[in-house]
Amino acid sequence: MRRLPSLFLIAVAGLAVTAMPAVAQKTLEAAKGRGHILCGVSQGLPGFSNPDAKGNWSGFDVDFCKAVAAAALGGADKVRFQPLSAKERFTALQSGEIDVLSRNTTWTLSRDTALGLDFAGISYHDGQGFMVHKKIGVKSAKDLNGATVCSNAGTTTELNVADYFRSHGMKYKLVTFEKSDDAFAAYVKGRCDVYTTDQSGLYAQRIRLDDPDDHLILPEIISKEPLGPATRQGDDGWSDIVRWTLFALINAEELGITAANAAQLKAESTNPEVRRLLGSEGDLGKNLGLDGDWALRAIQAVGNYGEVFERNLGSGSPLKIARNVNALWSKGGILYAPPAR
Ligand SMILES: N[C@@H](CCC(=O)N[C@@H](CS)C(=O)NCC(=O)O)C(=O)O
């Protein structure tokens, strides 16, 4: 009698294990079949995802998809970018129009639980801020009573504005736009006193201004905006690939692996953590459905997290955003990836 339940459990566990790969490989197999992954990005936000005149995309969110393409399909060029407004982005993921959403998207409980998607992790710790016309003479968000506020529809931004003004007993008029370019243009033209979005978005838009000195970014950060890539719920294998690509880039920075030295470290490093991540030891790619060079390819394609950040958002970019909380946990920030072992 006592044996029956355990036999039953073993049978169920066996079923679960054998059933897993078929479900898990859906997105990966489809991507292999078409020869590229489909990556949802913003419609144009300097530093994050921006097309040039020839339609070539670049930026922090773009590089992340290139890394996934390199890990999963063997080449950073095996990706097509689909620009999406904030409003469209979740439907695009649900409907299968994209395989991964890499578009300054905030991880929240309702998005995670109600929209049929999963967040792979946090690629950028952000928070919402305000930009104002200097001429209105406001130095603090607490002085914004009665302000007209321009922002984007379908974002956490509009919800946070409502919370902030309500909790401070202040009145406001919100004007939202589906395209963030339209929202920002309306602010620049003076239709609004304030433009509000993620602080990274404020930095990104600021470089587009003809007269940056006429604008002020207020000191208050009114929310937590943990931004990260999202995948469709129900394809855990694919979500794992996306999640561990992100972790691989972060761990690579911690381990001193760069685009330039990755191949040499794979051949010569004696550090067990480096060897495991780069596939010179063990077989970590196997359970991701990938080969042993998956992380090596991702790192060679775009560099480690720090390289991706500096090139697109940091000192090597026009945005000049400091790492701050986005520095590694070992360097005073909160960026922390689980170990690859
Ligand atoms: N992180 C927030 C806001 C994201 C968002 O859409 N921000 C705007 C303003 S920076 C944007 O990315 N616009 C670019 C675009 O619409 O293409 C969210 O997930 O709701």
CATH homology-level superfamily of the largest domain: Periplasmic binding protein-like II
Fraction of residues in H or I helices: 40-55%
Tell how many strands the DSSP assignment holds: 14
Question: What gross morphology would you assign?
Answer: globular
**Whole-number total of structural domains:** 2
Bound molecules: glutathione
Order of helices and strands: HHEEEHEHEHEEEEHEHEHEEEHHHHH
The CATH topology of the largest domain turns out to be D-Maltodextrin-Binding Protein, domain 2
Q: What proportion strand?
A: 15-25%
Considering the chains and any ligands shown, give keywords for the structure:
globular, 341 residues, 40% helix, disordered N terminus, alpha/beta, 13 helices, D-Maltodextrin-Binding Protein, domain 2, five-stranded mixed β-sheet, binds glutathione, single chain
Overall description:
Helices cover 40% and strands 16% of the residues. The longest helix is centred in the N-terminal third of the chain and has 22 residues, at 3-24. Strand 9, helix 6 (156-167) and strand 10 form a beta-alpha-beta unit. It has 2 domains: 3-125 and 227-331, D-Maltodextrin-Binding Protein, domain 2 (3-Layer(aba) Sandwich); 128-223, D-Maltodextrin-Binding Protein, domain 2. It has helices spanning 3-24, 26-34, 60-73, 89-94, 109-114, 156-167, 180-188, 199-206, 236-255, 262-268, 272-278, 294-302, 305-312, and strands at 37-41, 50-51, 57-58, 79-83, 100-101, 117-119, 124-126, 128-133, 147-152, 172-177, 194-198, 215-217, 225-227, 230-232. The chain is of the alpha/beta class. Residues 1-25 have low confidence and may be disordered. Helix 3 crosses helix 9 (236-255), helix 3 (60-73) runs antiparallel to helix 12 and helix 9 packs across helix 12. The strands form 4 sheets. A 5-stranded mixed β-sheet has the order 4-1-5-14-6. It starts with a helix and ends in a 29-residue tail after the last helix. It is globular, with a radius of gyration of 22 Å. Glutathione is lined by residues 42-45, 85-86, 104-106, 152, 155-157, 179-180, 197-198, 201, 225, 227. Glutathione (GSH) is lined by residues 42-45, 85-86, 104-106, 152, 155-157, 179-180, 197-198, 201, 225, 227.
